[in-house]
């Protein structure tokens, strides 16, 4: 399986290496650096690279490359999934400054994902239904592609071995679901109820996808006019954001990011609301809008300065929109009830909903 | 208090200090010291000098301290093998500790100490642990066997650990089962021939039970192991599929993909009629799509696999086009894969969407991606005929942008569109010519030159244009030079008066001033052609070109089938079998899909045609996916082709290389082999006389020959036709025909060696076909075939092979191997070889069945110019197993009611109306599988007219 693992930072230093069978020389990473050089952007380094004697399978997480060295035919997804777990673990471990002085002990239990003898004074079970809208909106404002990526994250602090059943008002929405191993698949198949003995603490209970286009509401619209004049060193930039199908909730946390063409030198804009920045090196325009109040729609207008003499840019930039709607799952998914069996106490229960923009792109 | 303090002591004399602390009596102090040692070790300081002191701490009840010491041991045992032996005793003791956690920890650490010297001491404790009462210990021990095997394989075998491991597959605990499978899989990889994972229905059942309960990583091993199993029948396959399907909902993408592999493989065994088959198809789409919302690295691997799945079973994802639309911030490697899959899924139904997307992509920033997008538009035009016009206008829009690389790509693909749809879009030539000066890439220049040469008569200044290229002839790449040579010769043949000087100039440049042998050869051939016989030259150079095929980069079907077995592995990412790239080819066993269990019903339920493949009465000229490109062209093109149509669809594809045969050298680097057919024509003109059969069209040979040699006893036998011309098979020429005599079908072959070397080692294989035709015996050619020798052989066939519906229905794809290469061809077999001897239906039955079959299944045909009377017709048909059930005379017309049965049990009922004195008969056919009617009619034609 994985022969060796190298951790490489953004400046190309191999700062950690681990070998399981025999030591593979660091020079194997040169093939990786070569590929990195070829790729214009760090994100574009191919995840599977073949070298004369090894295969390098890598992931890119938090400005670090996890490069694994493989010598035999393996399922690459196995390796990639595993590397992501390693990265998750590092994040958990180093992310919090408070590292306990007892090393974790693997405890035996009949349920592999739950420790035995868990005890809490306050027994709580919280669920977060988080939905992200991935969408491509074309120039004219019609939806080219839209789907919802949803997850239910759980934070369960319950004593003993609780057996939970979570039911939904409208389980039919969920036809493409990935489950945490704790969920009893048969119950779901027959009754559409999530029945499980939860792991202790935070975990992702399910993730799901709603793709049927008519079910995916698009909560915002963007009016845009970005134009560059022929043979002139300036252009016009004008975007306005408004609410569309927001189910009566406030849309907040709106940010618009635009990768402007290379020939753009600077931008001179006025926002009616929020603030904007333009980074002349990366050519990224970021407009932090905040909330939409329907009475006065936020807009950002002004001039674009282009490099003089350069031809007018061919490509039109895409707008990347971020937003957040509290207390709403845009797919309409609603939790009906949570029942607990196997333990006597009465837990405190709660469900929170939030909808966010995922990869939400507007073409101009 | 945090652990970071352990890393801060970097004083001098540290080692001594630590040594003292390690030997302290206080437990707490000892533990602190070991932590400091481990901390130093992880930052790369050498603390190996402390080995004996640390090992002394090993004997403790404190689990935490023990773990730390073990950690130290794993790191330094290799560099201090002699001292490592000191630890052995403790290991042995720990393996008997009452605490299962300690037992497991000990056995795990043992496996990680890769020191040959101590391995044999570890056998006994390991043996105990493998049979431990606690499953946690057993599962840890299972993995330890694999680790030990890596260090000393012989030892593991001698100690019988492999058998113990096999027993663990039947363990009651799912984790133990999973780890045993993982260990065995790893060991099996270095022992490809061993039957370590020989599975039987009982062990399969164990695995399936464990599958539901073990960890995600264990599930991957179990699924991969299941994929190597071949169920004994479709029922077992279905029951395994049913139990694997829940894995598609797993959060771990590797589990999902391994489950997809098992399902894709076992599906092959399920009959398409089953409801379950359809259910399974539907269940496969959502998880595949879900993989695309994961991290980009996972997406990439998923997309490479989806690419294979889409080629094998396009129906799974045909409605999911949109998820492959590209987001501007996808990594480039994801973008390119998505684009490829989009084209594969493009069909008439979704082409508008696809084109709109592609046009969008063509204005992106990334040059590579833009180029691919433009090419994709061209591929769409060629794949989906209805969209060609829109594609061309999209391409013209793109040319207007004047972006240099966009224009060049557009011109390259427009050339292909011209090839595919001749005389349709030439109006755009003027626009193309405007961009002549901006072309600086060889491929684009060559394409433009081809266009100018091909349409010289419509371009007023074609000679000026070509002349302008000629100025820098020697600086051009070979591709451009070859193209320029051909184009100018074409121009000369079209406008001889004005261009004589030009052609002389290019011929002399090519033949006298060039170092390139391809160029010189082509120059000489043209020169001689032009000087000896200008008329022949015209026929050769301006010959009608064969059509090009839609899919130029499909994976060859057998390779595709193999790759499907490797879904989720590196092979699926590289689209190569592991033998092609795994180092040393060690552990590589070729895998193949299980054969479908032959079901007599399967031909009656037509497979959904691959996306974009039109289905009509006429056999389609463009082979559908998976067909052997050129040969179908050869068969279906029909008479109007001058010269033998050649498979010159593409040079990019592996399979075509095989077909191209000896022509490759003549064709040189020419991108689409335009020169190919031209050169061959003259030789073809002389060949037919000797062969006694036209090389033009297999169809006409089979059905239109008037000089009948039909035998009276047994079915009609068509004269042999050339199936594989010598020039396509490196000198091997194969002609043949099909016969049916007293219940047995055979393929009569005539093999001629037209090469200069001896041919040996012949073998033959059929692709799956509509009626399961397969060789009943190997091809037996005992003596080597020397040059110019011909051998006749009759190959017995049966109909118990794998069934797959072909288009046309009676298409048979054949691969013939000899010591030189493997050659592919396809042929159409007359349906009457499948008419069985017991095809006579009882009268009552006939009447009932005739009524029972709905009228829309009735097909009517005219058989013209047949001078026979009813008697003669009846007896002639009977000899080919078409039986007359009843005969009536209605208003002076003879009505013959006839029945026949196909080898797969399909009945066909016929009513033949004969009017005395009128040579035209009317044939009505009724059958539950109406798609056979057309072919039965052809059989009637053939039998009656010969």
From TrEMBL, chain A:
It comes from the Eukaryota. Its main location: membrane. GO terms for cellular component: clathrin adaptor complex; endomembrane system. The keyword Transport applies. Residues 122-363 form the MHD domain. It is found in: Endomembrane system. InterPro entries: Adaptor_comp_med_subunit, AP2_Mu_C_sf, Clathrin_mu, Clathrin_mu_CS, Longin-like_dom_sf, MHD. Keywords: Membrane, Protein transport, Transport. Pfam families: Adap_comp_sub. Signal peptide: none annotated. One of its GO terms (biological process) is vesicle-mediated transport. It is a peripheral membrane protein. SUPFAM superfamilies: Second domain of Mu2 adaptin subunit (ap50) of ap2 adaptor, SNARE-like. Belongs to the adaptor complexes medium subunit family. This is AP-3 complex subunit mu-1 isoform X2.
TrEMBL record, chain B:
Residues 594-611 have a biased composition (Low complexity). Residues 835-945 form the Beta-adaptin appendage C-terminal subdomain domain. It holds the Pfam family B2-adapt-app_C. It is found in: Endomembrane system. InterPro entries: AP_beta, AP_complex_bsu_1_2_4, ARM-like, ARM-type_fold, Armadillo, B-adaptin_app_sub_C, Clathrin/coatomer_adapt-like_N, Clathrin_a/b/g-adaptin_app_Ig. It is a peripheral membrane protein. The lineage of its organism: Eukaryota, Metazoa, Chordata, Craniata, Vertebrata. Residues 584-625 are annotated as: Disordered. GO terms for molecular function: clathrin binding. Residues 716-826 form the Clathrin adaptor alpha/beta/gamma-adaptin appendage Ig-like subdomain domain. Belongs to the adaptor complexes large subunit family. Gene3D superfamilies: 2.60.40.1150, Leucine-rich Repeat Variant, TATA-Binding Protein. One of its GO terms (biological process) is vesicle-mediated transport. Keywords: Acetylation, Membrane, Protein transport, Transport. This is AP complex subunit beta. Its main location: membrane. One of its GO terms (cellular component) is endomembrane system. The keyword Calcium does not apply.
